[in-house]
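dude i think i finally got it to work??
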Amino acid sequence: MTNQSFATRAVHAGERVPQGNYIPVATPIHPTVGFVYESMDDLDAIFATTQEGYVYPRYGSPTVAAFETAIADLEGGEAAYAFASGMAAMHSALLAAGVRAGTAVVAALDVYGATYTLLNRLFAELGAAVRLVDVADLAAVEAALAEAQPVALVAETISNPLLKVADAPALAELAHRYGAQLLLDNTFATPYLFTPLAHGADFVIHSATKYIGGHGDVMAGVVVTSAANRRKLYDLTLIVGGTLGPFEAWLALRGLKTLPLRMQKQVSNAAHIAAWLAEQPQIARVNHPSLPAHPQHQLARRLFGERGFGGVLSFEIAGAGKNAVFRFMERLKLCLPATTLGDIYTLVLHPATSSHRSLSPEARAQIGISEGLIRLSAGIEEVEDIIADLEQALAKV
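look at this
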């Protein structure tokens, strides 16, 4: 399907797998945990992975396979492996990349809070050396790679929650020069804006809970990579679990079909909201790559083209501490204070007490996450209604 447009592939990828003598228009949900074959030789060959088929959900299932096929198609990867959450996907990708005791990892300083904790607590406690760096500073990245000699470089295409844009082609070249693999979290960008594998990344990770599912009703994660790396993920998951269930896979696959439509509206809304906020006297700072003042504005234009700059932005209310931010969020009527993003609803979040709560105040200050910072994920409502809601809440600050 690679010769067809992204929107067409989003609708049809992974579908129409024959079921006996008929072909379902939409992929069915297969909740069974067992599969019976007339020939034990077939069952043996499937266990050995020399023959395609299904034996137990931890080894794979038809509904999950349909979702994996679809996301691999949209990301331009050889294969994908789905997980029960985005963090399960990130954890397994790091393991598949070779992160273990005695190895090193270089990671973006401002990665998602749970990724930060995964690296600096779990992997560090297990004996991996973790080096944090500002990935916008390519000279600093190269110096860290040269010194640490890591097995992996970890970054986000668009960072959470400061909306920094990673120069994926440059990072891939640097990582490979020093023998590391590049792992890019593409959750904020989605394959609608950017396909990292085409620019040298080795693993692309998604919290499919967000834009991929898109409706706030499913938790899932997925890694898109080479066929060889997928086999590593498969072998790991047989041992540690973390498998995506068929109901969740079906919802994620359904969400993929409208990804282009939702993203068009959400990136447009986010750009309009960011521009409006930047003009408000109560707002000290707005982070969104659409703004000409954003440090990576031109890089974002080069990487994302005319498709937009992402559906998430963040902003600081001038002089506001936690209490003032909480009161502002409580006054919102349309925008919902929910601890997620990428839904059809416009959502706001206070990173210091939610997504990055596990970090110390000193670590948050080093990254640039203040008590006054608010993250906003634009929904698909009319942008005038979103702005009106923000305006009435700001007027009472």
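The chain has a mean pLDDT of 95.
im so relieved honestly
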